[in-house]
Every structure is written in structure tokens, then in C-alpha cells.
Design brief:
Elements (H helix, E strand, L loop, with lengths): L22 H17 L4 H24 L5 H36 L1 H12 L4 E4 L2 E4 H47 L1 H10 L6 H40 L5 H10 L6 H17 L2 H27 L7 H15 L1 H23 L6
Antiparallel strand pairs: 1-2
Helix pairs in contact: 2-3, 2-5, 3-5, 4-5, 7-8, 7-10, 7-12, 8-9, 9-10, 11-12
């Protein structure tokens, strides 16, 4: 039935028809879309983070909506959003003072730390650089003066602008998360509407395999980061009592988001911190803890929470990680493994179908 005021079509007029859209225009449209995302990659990160958080929290919204069956969905989404904000505020209230203290102390101790590092490299106080002997004290002073001049030359303003942009991006992520939680179904229907109708059945079939894998991957990654941070905080702070335990623990946990290279960098940072403590027993204990933590993540926690659906060969992970970083920067680092795993599932689904004859 036509809408009110809409002109009625003549009875004998045949319905409008169109040809099925072939694959190459869709491939061209996807290529253009990728180039567009490449040029606007700077502003994509809040949208991706909010989308990932909304993707993780949506099942909780649906469960709460089923509990309050007579209430509107937006009420359940608002309740979950408020709980999320409360959790973030509580975490920030507990962590921010400790992190601020650690960062201030690290900045204050930077000259001594740099001198200690050079002392490990050149115990005698002399270091050969391009065949010329250098005194470690004068080298430390020169590095610090260059760093100070670099910050005063405009880099400091760039860092301040980056900090402001990060704060703004955080608030934007929270605003976008509210929209994704409250109007998530409408957003999903709008995205499906963009796909030509003749391909929507195939899209639904593929998303049935991709959606659970992606949700399990994101939730599992969150569990791995939380596990790593918690265990590091317990051992660094309560057991080993090393300096800057909160800052180091969070850094080790966040580096779990970076495939392959993140764990390697976190192990190097912990070993460096162990050498800074200058006790052999503590150094050995920290190294043993790092090895055991790595084994527990790779052999127990990771396989349990991530499963095998998202498994991608390490060579593919490294390639995806590096190419993602080149094309999309930080966003590419975060999306490298999910995109690679999604491509794997889509190809597995496509190749499982029998090709049409003729």
C-alpha cells in the first residue's frame, strides 16, 4: 500500500527491475572505501574503539532487555552504559594517582637511569662511538641537552596537542559508545541496507560465522590484558616491590594488544627494570616470572579465552601487523589480527561452497 500522498502507479505498468550487480563494481567500491578510510584514518580510532566496546557489551544489553521484557531496549542499553562509566571512573580513581606519581618519578630519574644504562654498556666509563672514545657522563649530558632542545623546538607543543587530542578522543569514544549501545540494531540494519539485496543472504551466512569469532576475540583479548596486568601488578608491587610497579604493570598489559612484538618489548622492559634493582636474586626472580607469565598466556589463558577460530599463523600475523601499521598506524595495529582472522573465515565459507557450473 502506498504512503499517504504518494502517487499510485498505473495498474498495467510493469514493476521496475534491475540487473544483478556484478562483482567488479563491488570490488571497486570497496577499494574506494579503503582509500577513503586511509585518508581519514586519524579520526577513525574513536569510532573503532567505540564500535568494539559496543560489540562486546551488546550481549549484556540483550540479556538485560530480556530480563525487563516489558521495558524498552534503550533503558537496558542506558543501564549497561552507566555501569560501564562507573567501572571506568572507579578504575581511573584508583590508577591515575599511582600512574601520575610513577610518570613524575620516571621523568625526575631520567638522567640517572640513562647514566645507569650507559654504565651497563661501558662499565669503565668510556664508550667507543664510530672509533672515537666518549665519556659516559658527557654523553649523558649531551643526550639530555638534545632532548631538552627537541622539546623546546616545537615537539613539546606537538606532545601537548597529542595529549589534548587523546583526551578529546576518549570523550568522543564514550559518546559514540552510547549511540552504538542504544541504537546498535538500527546501525546494523543501515549497514546491511548498503549491501545489494541479492548478496544479503550470503552476508548473513558469513556474519553468523564471523560475529561469534570476533566477539570471542575481543572479549578474550580484554581478558588476556586484564590477566597480564593483574598478575604483573601483584608480583611487581606486592612480591618483588620494584619501582614504578603500577606503570610497568599497565604497560606490560597494554602491550599484549600488539601481536608478537608487544610481548617481546614487555619482556625487555621487565628485564631492564630488573637490572635497575641491582640485586641478583630479584633479577632472577623477575626473569622467571616473565617466562612463566608468557607460558601461561600462550599455553593456557590465550587458547582458553581466544579459542582456535581466530587462530592465524604467526607469519600471517607479522605480515598483517606490519602492513596494518604502514597503512593505518595505531588503528592498523589494533585491527591486524581481527581482519586477518575475518578474511580467513570468509574465505573458508566461500571455498566450502560448490562452484556453479557454466
Amino acid at each position: 500500500m502506498p504512503y499517504p500522498g504518494e502517487a499510485r502507479a498505473p495498474v498495467n505498468e510493469r514493476p521496475l527491475t534491475r540487473r544483478k550487480i556484478p562483482g567488479w563494481p563491488i570490488a571497486a567500491a570497496l577499494a574506494v572505501l579503503f582509500l577513503y578510510f586511509y585518508y581519514v584514518r586519524v579520526v577513525l580510532l574513536p569510532f573503532v574503539l567505540a564500535g568494539a566496546l559496543g560489540f562486546i557489551l551488546t550481549p549484556l544489553v540483550e540479556k538485560l532487555h530480556r530480563v525487563i521484557a516489558r521495558g524498552p531496549r534503550w533503558l537496558a542499553a542506558t543501564a549497561v552504559y552507566i555501569l560501564f562509566l562507573v567501572a571506568i571512573a572507579a578504575l581511573g580513581y584508583w590508577l591515575i594517582p599511582a600512574l601520575a606519581e610513577d610518570v613524575t618519578e620516571i621523568a625526575r630519574e631520567a638522567p640517572k637511569t640513562l647514566q645507569d644504562v650507559l654504565g651497563y654498556i661501558a662499565p669503565g666509563g668510556k664508550l667507543m662511538i664510530i672509533g672515537a672514545p666518549m665519556n659516559t657522563d658527557s654523553l649523558t649530558q649531551g643526550i639530555l641537552e638534545r632532548a631538552r632542545a627537541y622539546l623546546l623546538s616545537g615537539a613539546g607543543l606537538a606532545l601537548a596537542s597529542g595529549a589534548i587530542a587523546t583526551i578529546f578522543g576518549g570523550f568522543l569514544t564514550l559518546v559514540l559508545l552510547a549511540y552504538f549501545l542504544i541504537s546498535g540494531p538500527a546501525v546494523r540494519r543501515g549497514l546491511i541496507w548498503l549491501v545489494p539485496p541479492e548478496y544479503r543472504d550470503q552476508l548473513h551466512q558469513m556474519t553468523r560465522g564471523v560475529t561469534p569469532m570476533l566477539r570471542r576475540y575481543f572479549v578474550g583479548l580484554l581478558i588476556v590484558v586484564t590477566y597480564t596486568t593483574t598478575m604483573s601488578l601483584i608480583f611487581f608491587g606486592a612480591i618483588f616491590r620494584i619501582s614504578h610497579a603500577p606503570f610497568l604493570s599497565i604497560l606490560v598489559g597494554v602491550l599484549e594488544l600488539v601481536p608478537v612484538f608487544g610481548p617481546m618489548l614487555s619482556m625487555s622492559l621487565v628485564i631492564f627494570a630488573a637490572f635497575q634493582e641491582a640485586t641478583i636474586g630479584l633479577t632472577i626472580g623477575l626473569i622467571v616470572f616473565v617466562v612463566v607469565l608468557r607460558l601461561s598466556i600462550d599455553q593456557i589463558v590465550g587458547p582458553l579465552v581466544l579459542g582456535q577460530a581466530a587462530y592465524v599463523h604467526p607469519i600471517v600475523v607479522i605480515f598483517a601487523f606490519l602492513t596494518g601499521a604502514v597503512f593505518l598506524g595505531v588503528l592498523g595495529l589494533l585491527l591486524a589480527v581481527p581482519v586477518a582472522a575475518t578474511i580467513k573465515i570468509v574465505l573458508t565459507h566461500y571455498y566450502s561452497e560448490k562452484p556453479r557450473s557454466g
